[in-house]
Amino acid sequence: MTHAPHQHGHQHGQQHGHPQGHPQGHPQDDADDQTEILDLDAEVLAEHIASITAWLPVKAAPRHIVDLGSGTGAGTLALLNRFPDAEVTAVDTSAAHLDRLLEKAESASLADRVRTVRADLDTDWPDLGTPDLVWASASLHHMADPDRTLRQVHDTLAPGGLFAVVELAGFPRFLPADAPADRPGLEERCHAAIDRHHTEHLPHRGADWGPKLTAAGFTVEGERTVTVNIAPPHTEAVGRYALAGLRRMRGGVAEFLTAEDLAALDQLLDTESPRGILRRDDLTVRTERTVWAARSPA
Asked: What is the C-alpha to C-alpha distance for residues 287 and 177, in angstroms, rounded to an integer?
């Protein structure tokens, strides 16, 4: 999990926990950036994604799983590993992300257990069979009408099937709050700008899905918050994750920052600078993800 940021592919071409709005450039460059962030999210947060799949209150090992808004496959691969007899149908709007998911499944010798479906779940609902488990990580908040999506899942699941919804607490934080070499409060101001943007464009991001699941006819059997705090020393992937995430964040917040804040952020993103994000040894990954496990009527 996609997380996840993450998590994250997903409806409307967005991914786990990352803001709409991105640096100017070729659309293919943007797609490549999304793929990189999704892959790094899966790598850096693999342990936390696995802990969520292990927690799921399944009554019997599922044989057919659907991953809604699969991105490049963080959830898909975690679920395949958790349930070795299951097959997963991965659904996403992005052909590039589904292609990447299949590459990763092939590398892990899991491709024979994966089916991909390219679909926009805000339009016609595809034929997904009758799954025992539906997984939606950081994807529901991208739906134009998430209540409609919940009803669709309710009607799609096998009787007594499980629906796992994972939601992000926000964009991950990477910098220490009081590092003397930094511009104090920079990351918090970036987050405040992104939060304002999401309030307008992604009003369901960070929602409490429990009441909505109940209203759609599910019985919520469990809720859990997973706290992520990956401290130094860290792997090289954490540096790349922070670079990719902050670079993408810059595209959404640049117009809201002062010139001084923007200059400080650009210095962090400078891969040649001794004060750049890749050369820091004090990076952390701090975020939270909440998961709801909801049962359909038997």
From this structure: 14
| Total H helices, total E strands in the chain | 9, 7
User: CB within 8 A of 32, min separation 6: which ones?
Assistant: none
Question: Measuring CA to CA, which residue among 132, 121, 57 is closest to residue 87?
Answer: 132
Q: Domain ranges in the chain?
A: 11-295
171-183 residue pLDDT tens: 899 988 666 556 8
**Spatial CB neighbours of 149, under 8 Å, sequence gap ≥ 6:** 68, 121, 140, 143
Q: pTM of the entire structure?
A: 0.85
DSSP for residue 24: S
- Other C-beta atoms closer than 10 Å to the C-beta of 122 total 16
Over residues 89-133, the pLDDT tens digits come to 999 999 999 999 999 999 999 999 999 999 999 988 999 999 999
Vertex 209 angle, CA 297 and 36, to 5°: 115
Cβ atoms of 121 and 142 within 8 Å: the answer is no
CATH code for the structural domain at 11-295: 3.40.50.150
- The predicted structure's pLDDT at residue 198: 65
**Each residue of 149-158: pLDDT tens digit?**
999 999 999 9
**To which residue do tokens 């010798």 refer?**
109
Burial environment of residue 57 by CB neighbours within 10 A (0 to 12, 13 to 18, 19 or more):
exposed
